[in-house]
Amino acid sequence: MSTPTTQTDRSLTRERFAVCAVFVAFGLVLGTWAAQLPAVKAAIGASTSGMGAILFILGLGAFLGMQASGYAVDRWGSARIATVGAAAMALALLPPLLLTSWPAVAGTALLLGIAVGISEVGMNAAAVEVERDYQRPIMASFHGMFSIGNVIGALFGAAAFSLGIGSVATAVTITVISLILASAAAPTLIRRRTSHPAAPPEPEHAGAESKTGIPKSRPRGRLALLGILAFLLLLTEGSAMDWSSLHAQEHLGGSSSSGALALACFVSAMTAGRFTVDRVAARIGPVHVLRGGAILAVAGLVIVVLSPMLAVTCLGWVVLGLGLSGCVPQVFTAAGNLPGSSGKELSRVVGAGYLAVLAGPALVGWMADFIGLNNAFILPMIAMVVCVCAAHVLAPRKPAVAA
User: How far does the chain reach from its first CA to its final CA, in angstroms?
Assistant: First the structure.
């Protein structure tokens, strides 16, 4: 696998590791937040819908942060924004895990969400640039590093519950580790020269009409379709991240450590899948990765909903995680390589996806108050069925034939 001749192998490898560190820090923070949700719910005495509202507020903050981050990436470069976002996330994790009233947790969740949004766009834009320099698919491996952070955060949460370690010690530990990762990545990322948006690696993505006076309409339409796919995929991923732990406790009568184990099964499967999907996508193409992954995700959700015991439920979360693992990276890579793509365009696709983080888990929470949390998983199940039908959106466009 050759690397670009415009950079030395060592500098490019350092940049890849630096971006990986930011993805790990991002996963650590979100994995810890998800594992601690039952403890937060108990600390503030919130109902399921009350916790859904907090998740809605966090998602709103993420969406606002993403919109600002797109412009910031174009002005100051993706590397700087990724570094700042990772450090901000680490610091913003502490307050919502330490406070004990609903208004205080809701307000600090908004700040955490803004930091999440800034970091999400910055690190994905940086990943697209490094992948472009590598000249081969590596985006899923970056998301795999995010999943590693998720696994560590979830397992650390399970161990903390089992050992009686409180939320304060857990939050402080994860914050310090995440700040160390961001600090280690900062020198390499800040020195990186900002890459200007390039044409897509495959000419057919742009289409022949990109040079005929109507360059904007088709890319914008494709951008909207990619945004819809990102929305549906992240609705499902966010629902699993935010509700798998509580589902194991409330629906199956499990302990706090059992809930953290359910979450760990999901994110572990996501991790394993993301470190293999780049090679799979190179062989069978992004359409088949998305369609097959969505079918597998539907099967996993069916297992979760019908399961009467924790072991089978964990199997369902594993199947769901494997199915979802390669889908979002394919969508983000396609968005980052659209003709004339910039930070603003990528932020729109990422932002559309995180509208699902804003609405999806909150809707599941509100539905759970009426039909139960287990039955509320019908929402992400429907989203995955739509993805099965719409996977052709990722198919490369063939050049238009001149009349």
Answer: 39
- Segments in 93-166 forming alpha helices (H): 94-98, 102-134, 139-163
What the block records as the tokens of 58 is 């966090």
- Find, among 135, 84, 127, the residue nearest to 332 by Cα: 127
What pLDDT score does 342 carry?
A: 58
Which residue carries 């979760």 as its tokens? Answer: 304
What residues does each domain of the chain span? 9-394
Is 18 in a helix, a strand, or coil? helix
- For the domain 9-394, what is the CATH code? 1.20.1250.20
Would you state the pLDDT for residue 360?
76
**Token pair of 279 as six digits:** 């090679």
Q: So what's the pLDDT on residue 215?
A: 42
Reported as a single tens digit per residue, the pLDDT across 51-62 is 888 888 888 888
Residue 118's closest CA among 72, 177, 162?
72
Q: What are the helix and strand counts (H, E) for the chain?
A: 17, 0
Q: How far apart are CA 262 and CA 186, in angstroms?
A: 34
**DSSP track, 293-356:** HHHHHHHHHHHHHH--SHHHHHHHHHHHHHHHTTHHHHHHHHHHTSTT--HHHHHHHHHHHHHH
Other Cβ atoms within 10 Å of 156 Cβ, number: 21
CB 316 within 8 A of CB 374: no
Contact between 227 and 352 under an 8 Å Cβ cutoff? The reply is yes
Per-10-residue mean pLDDT, the chain, length 403: 54 87 92 84 83 85 85 82 90 89 92 90 87 82 87 80 78 91 87 51 40 47 86 90 84 78 85 88 88 95 91 93 91 76 72 75 83 89 93 69 43
| Residue 356 near residue 239 (C-beta atoms within 8 A) | no
